[in-house]
Amino acid sequence: MSTQQHSSVGIDQLAVYVPRYVLELEKLARARGVPAEKISIGLGAHEMAVAPPWEDTVTLAANAAERLFAQGWTRPEEIGLLLVATETAVDHAKPASIFVHELLGLPANCRTFELKHACYGGTAGVMIARDWLLSPASRGRKALVIASDIARYDLHSSAEFTQGAGAAAVLLSAEPRLLELAPESGVFAGNVYDFWRPLERREALVDGKFSLDCYLDALSGALADYRSALNGRGGQPLLERFDALLYHTPFPKMAYKAHLRLAEVDSAARIVDPEECARLAEKTYAELVEPSLTMARRTGNSYTASLYLCLAWLASQRAAALPGREIGLFSYGSGCCAEFFTGRFAERSPEAAQKIAAAELLDARRSLSVEEYERCATTAVGEPPTTDGTGAFFFAGVRDDKRHYARAQRALGAGA
Ligand code: CAA
């Protein structure tokens, strides 16, 4: 275990939200004539969250944040910075964040904007919030970063199985209750065309196999930069130092591939036999990576939110055992920018982790048929929600070219 100094800023509270509908991927595999094992084993994916027409990036974000405020520790007036990270924006100019600002009743002197760099946007927001908290601008207030996305690819494409949706509301503060963030991180950036979404398209385009290579190369680059940031300190192998390693998870098998790469990079100087390196990666994967993956396995890709859903799942499942444990997190955004950063669970983390209640959210969803999923995928504008079909807020349609949102009569609270 490392004795490295951590700053006293980090994640104070975390809340997640996923749409109320789910499609079991076995059903989709049957409908598309694809072997079920290719998806369950080859991609490691079991279910995907399906956003109905009355949920969009704004409602997912606001619903996650509503669950965060329902945890009872923070009031909207305490927020001085609101960042909404997404790669599935609802408008080219008007940011999702200003809709969320209104829905949550945040104060007028709260700086707010939307930010984008594919799936890296959420981590970009976390890093901006961390720096803001360390600056005089924060004046003792807290920062709310919300990562929110709906991952859509063309129906019948191979990427269709890696869709999903979800949002994570990440509250950052000084003296955080959940996870103290370390000041050092490693970054890698470079222009690649692995995944993109031209302005007129609702569904993303992707060069699938190439995107996997870009992800792994960015991981190697970020780890090399992390070593430079440590500047000779913390020389012990990453696989021995951390109690968990969390990776951006477009599909769970990607986290496995990432872990193999990290093991290779980590052990390059010590282990020259590739088979021995693979055995070490295999052994540590079960212990360090697998425990964080259930939410990704059951919701699919949630782009900017993906890494934070992994954190939410790990924290909520391991609540009692968290204090003092150190974790490494890898964020990848196509295009690309990536960052490897670390954190240590705080003394009060069990209490903060228990409030996340991630499992209840998954268990409360309604299962769709493939036909119902396809209707959701091809319908852009909302119908009135059913009583169990939404969180606290829903998208109420477009009038006069303007988007409207409303509060649901029967909202989901801190639980499911
Ligand atoms: N039983 C078990 N496994 C099987 C199988 C079977 N019957 N048939 C195939 N498989 C395995 C394959 O061997 C392969 O495993 P390995 O990669 O370990 O070899 C796996 O199933 C997938 O098979 P294919 O590569 O043939 O799958 P595909 O052509 O359908 O494409 C994909 C897979 C490229 C991930 C595609 O789903 C895709 O393009 N997804 C979107 C892009 C994406 O998620 N990229 C990730 C990196 S980029 C990123 O992270 C940013 C982001 O969020 C988008």
Characterization of this structure:
- This protein is α/β, with parallel strands linked by helices and 416 residues long.
- It has a single domain (10-407), classed as Peroxisomal Thiolase, Chain A, domain 1.
- It contains 14 helices and 16 strands.
- The protein has helices at 25-32, 36-43, 57-69, 96-104, 121-133, 208-230, 238-241, 252-267, 274-288, 294-299, 306-317, 349-354, 358-363, 370-378, and strands at 9-17, 21-24, 47-50, 79-85, 111-115, 142-151, 164-174, 179-189, 195-196, 205-206, 244-247, 326-333, 337-345, 366-367, 393-399, 402-407.
- It has a nine-stranded mixed β-sheet with strand order 5-4-6-7-1-8-13-12-11, sandwiched between helices. Strands 3-2-14 form a three-stranded mixed β-sheet. Strands 9-10 form a two-stranded antiparallel sheet.
- A hairpin with an 8-residue loop joins β9 (195-196) and β10.
- α3 runs parallel beside α4, α6 (208-230) packs across α8 (252-267) and α8 (252-267) crosses α9.
- The longest helix has 23 residues, at 208-230.
- It binds acetoacetyl-coenzyme A.
- Residues 35, 37-38, 41-43, 119, 158-159, 161-162, 194-195, 206, 208-209, 211-212, 215, 248, 250-251, 253-254, 301, 303, 332, 334 line the site of acetoacetyl-coenzyme A (CAA).
